[in-house]
Amino acid sequence: MNTQGSLATPRDIAAALAAPLPATVRAAVSLPGATTEVRSLDPGRASSAVGWLQVESSALCGTDLDLYHRGLGHPTVMGHHAVGRIVSLTPAMEWSWDVRVGDRVALEEYLPCGLAACDACSKPDIYRFCPDADLWGGQRRLGMLGLHEGSGLHGGNAEYLELSTHTVLHKLPQDLDSNLAAWTQPFANAVDWVVNIGGAMAGSRVAVIGPGYHGVAAVAAARAVGAQEIVVLGRNSRTSRERLAIAEAMGATIVVNDEAANTSAALGRQAKGQGFDVIVDTVGLGGPAVQAAEQLRKLGRLVLAGLGDTPVAEVNLKTLVRGAAGIVGVRGRSPRAVTRSIELLAAGGTGLEHVPSIDVGLEGINDLFRTLLDRSGPSSPHVVVRPGLAPGPTPTH
Q1: What is the CATH number of domain 10-172+356-395?
Q2: Cβ distance 3 to 121 under 8 Å?
Q3: What does the pLDDT look like over 16-61, one tens digit per residue?
Q4: What interhelical angle do 365-373 and 62-70 show, nearest 10?
Q5: Is CB count within 10 Å lower at the N or C end of the chain?
Q6: What superfamily does domain 184-329 belong to in CATH?
Q7: Residue ranges of the domains in the chain?
Q8: Is residue 238 classed exposed, middle or buried when 0-12, 13-18 and 19+ CB atoms within 10 A define those classes?
């Protein structure tokens, strides 16, 4: 039997995958000069796509703002907390990912190499440390690959996103509320930091430094495991006060402190001699956060989730040894934390359903970034890009 010409070529596969897509895809392209403009990109330029995702939401993270402010190296479709629905997929990836066309998924930002020789990728739970995907290394990550690579549609701030063999995704319940689905990754971070690494459990006393995106998520994680008390520390500014009010509505006790050097004392006054089982620094205070270790209970844990401006700090070893306490740095999250995040969000009761969501369309991203950088923007930490929306940020509830 003559089988010549029966095998699909890469061009055939690319054409088949792109069939459900429009001829051009609208995307918000962020430029090195800290501006963003909406462009129409050609999905047909994809060179390594194994599928396509129709983007439902792309939640804004502080990392996005930092990268944007420092200046991108090339025009980029940003957005690394993407949620959407699969519109096309090769049979091989259907089998590998155990998902189908029509499934709703949340993507992780990491695009690890997946090679057996890679120490990180050879272990199922630490692929986020792959040198290719490292934020301080290869930067092969969602929302960081430039327009010069294939279709350029490698971030969530677009109508469609190109899936590759390096994509890491998690299936979502079809009926999970869209606002809650957008919390999948930041809440997974919080579950890892507060519970898996910090050790919070029913009856724990938890302190959170910073009422921002990850601070509010940390409150939800502590609440989900039945913490006895949750204290959130923030500054006396418009944005911080409004975010503290959100944390308070979720059941936290709030503390206002404008002097970073007084962080330990402020937490100590609130602890009233009882101490905390877990203290999570979500803003990167550096030395003042390390000093707060003296407010830990025996066997307590100080979790550092940021570097801030003072990455070098003195540590009181007597405090750690006498209390058998620990200080640990965290980055991203484990895959089991994502699974747990989805389970908790689907079950309800995390409190995140009450956090106001600021939704913005592609045309509104440039103004949104500008107002966030000059601190005149929305106070809610939950800012979500929704490619199908009309221009302008709109609070949904």
Answers
A1: 3.90.180.10
A2: no
A3: 787 789 999 999 999 999 999 999 999 999 988 999 999 999 999 9
A4: 90
A5: N
A6: NAD(P)-binding Rossmann-like Domain (3.40.50.720)
A7: 10-172+356-395, 184-329
A8: exposed
